[in-house]
């Protein structure tokens, strides 16, 4: 009977640790990131949206999915590779979860696998994202090295 209590105790300890890690991750992501919804294309009109946060760096946009225990980003998009192909409002049943948001369709190739994405974000977050993209260094401008 004591081995059953030991197994149950270990399972309880593991469950407490996993819940603690999940709570820590959710707290960190909500405190420091910009909330967005992301989906990989092609997708049906109202399917595939995943809640998460994005974190901007000098070179990358890192997307962290809220429902994941993964310690690092779920997706990483290169700043130089991100191009917006179109901007739209939610359509059909999308408006139930994306009410008031702006949806940006990103050109294929923003990540290493060459996938296309859609990002849904609040208008203020869209302005910040657009500013971050526009302030990137041009592909044509490179520092010349003296020989």
Notes on the structure:
The chain has 147 residues and is an alpha+beta fold. The chain has a domain at 33-134: Pleckstrin-homology domain (PH domain)/Phosphotyrosine-binding domain (PTB) (PH-domain like). The protein is built from three helices and seven strands, in the order H-E-E-E-E-E-H-E-E-H. The protein has helices at 2-32, 94-97, 123-134, and strands at residues 34-41, 50-56, 60-65, 75-78, 84-88, 102-106, 116-121. It has a seven-stranded antiparallel beta sheet with strand order 4-3-2-1-7-6-5, with helices on both faces. The longest helix has 31 residues, at 2-32. The chain is elongated and about 65 Å long. It starts with a helix and ends in a 13-residue tail after the last helix. The mean pLDDT is 86. This is DUF2550 domain-containing protein. It comes from Gordonia hankookensis.
Keywords summarizing the entry:
alpha+beta, PH-domain like, 3 helices
Order of helices and strands: HEEEEEHEEH
Given the structure, what is the number of helices? 3
Measured between the Cα atoms of the first and last residue, the distance is: 78 Å
Query: How are the strands of the biggest sheet laid out side by side?
Result: 4-3-2-1-7-6-5
Secondary-structure-derived class: alpha+beta
Number of beta-strand segments? 7
The CATH class of the domain at 33-134 turns out to be Mainly Beta
CATH architecture descriptor of the domain at 33-134: Roll
CATH topology term of the domain at 33-134? PH-domain like
Segments where pLDDT lies below 50 for 5+ residues?
none
Radius of gyration in whole Å, from Cα?
20 Å
What is the mean pLDDT? 86
Main beta sheet strand tally, sense and closure: 7 strands, antiparallel
Task: Give the full name of the CATH homologous superfamily of the domain at 33-134.
Answer: Pleckstrin-homology domain (PH domain)/Phosphotyrosine-binding domain (PTB)
Strand % is 25-35%
Envelope shape = elongated
Percent helix among the residues? 25-40%
Protein name: DUF2550 domain-containing protein
InterPro entries: DUF2550 (IPR019675)
Pfam families: DUF2550 (PF10739)
């Amino acid at each position: 009977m004591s081995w059953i209590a030991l197994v149950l105790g270990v399972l309880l300890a593991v469950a407490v640790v996993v819940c603690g890690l999940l709570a820590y991750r959710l707290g960190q992501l909500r405190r420091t990131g910009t909330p967005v919804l992301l989906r990989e294309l092609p997708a049906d009109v109202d399917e595939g949206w995943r809640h998460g946060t994005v974190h901007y760096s000098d070179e990358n946009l890192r997307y962290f999915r809220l429902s994941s225990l993964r310690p690092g980003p779920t997706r990483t998009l290169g700043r130089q590779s991100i191009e917006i192909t179109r901007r739209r409002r939610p359509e059909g049943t999308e408006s139930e979860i994306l009410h008031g948001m702006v949806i940006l369709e990103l050109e294929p190739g923003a990540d290493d696998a060459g996938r296309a994405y859609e990002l849904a974000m609040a208008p203020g977050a869209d302005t910040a994202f657009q500013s971050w993209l526009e302030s990137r260094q041009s592909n044509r401008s490179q520092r010349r090295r003296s020989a």
